[in-house]
What we know:
single chain; alpha/beta; Rossmann fold; 2 domains; 9-stranded mixed β-sheet; elongated
Amino acid sequence: MGHILVVGELAPDGSLTKLSTEVATLGRSLAEASGTTVHGVVFATGGASAAATAAMDELLAFVDTASIDERATDGDTVAPVAAAVSTDVADVDVVLLPATPNGRDIAGALSALTGLGVLANATGARWSADGPVVEMSAFGGKLITDSVFTQGRGIITVRPNAVTAAPRATAGTRSETPATSAPTLAPVRVVDRVEEGAAAVSIDDARIIVSGGRGVAGPEGFRLVEDLAAALGGAVGATRAAVDSGWIAYSQQIGQTGKIVKPQLYLALGISGAIQHKVGMQTSGAIVAVNRDADAPIAEFADLFIVGDLFEVGPALLTALRARPD
C-alpha cells in the first residue's frame, strides 16, 4: 500500500495556509484509517517556516523552487510544480491538494502527467476497503454524493472549511531539497496579472462575518455593513447579487460561486438565503439574519431571525456595540 501525499501552500509569513492545515489533517485521518503514512510537501523559494511542520505527519519535504522558477516560462510555475510532484507519485495512493486556484491547476496538470483521476471540491473523505470514499456537494448543497476511484488511487482537491484543522502533538520531521528534474510541459504564457487590494480582515479565517445582500441596496448601504464588522472585529462578506451589482469586490463573495466560510458568528443583512448563498455559510457556528420579509428562506436555518428594516436594526445594533465598555 502506498502512502498519502499532501501538497500544501504557504502563507506570506512562511506558515501553512489555513486550508493546507485542514488538508493535512484530512490526510492524517485517512492515513490512520488505512494503516499507512502521510507525507507533506510544499514548494517555495528561499526557505520555509518551522511552523509549517506542525500539521504534517512523518515528513514535511520543503522543495526549493529556485530551479523550478528557472524552467518556468513567462511567470508560470504551476505546470513545473505539477511536473515535480509527478516524479514522486509512483508509490502514492492519494494526492490531496487545497481547492485553491493553484491547487486546482496543479491537480489538472498532475492528472495529465500521471493518468490519475481527480475528484474535485471534496467536503470530506473516509477510507474503505477499496480506497478513499470522497464526499462532495452537488446542486448547491441539495445533494451529497460519495465517489470512489476506479483503481483505488487518485487526486483529491479539498474545499475550505470542510475539515477542522487539528495539529499533531509533536511537529513532523522536516527535510529540505532542491527541485529535481521533471517532465517538460508545454509552456504557458501569462499575458497579464491583476492584483486586487486585500480586505482589512480576510473572510477565509474570520471568526465573525457581517454580510450584505441585495437588501443593502447599494454601495452606500455597505458602509453600515463595514461599520458593524469593524465594531465586532470581523470581516465583510456579500452575496453574488451584491457583487454582480458592483457594490463590493468579488473577493468578499460567499456562496456556491464564491468562498465557503465557517465563522463562529454570521450576521446576514438583507440576504434572502437562496441555496447558492446558503451552501457557502451554512456551517457557521451561529447565524443571525435581519430581513423585512418574514418568509425569506434564511429564516428556515438562521439561529436568530429578526424581521425588520436593516437600516433601522443595523444602526441600533451599532449604537449598542459602540456603547459597550472597553
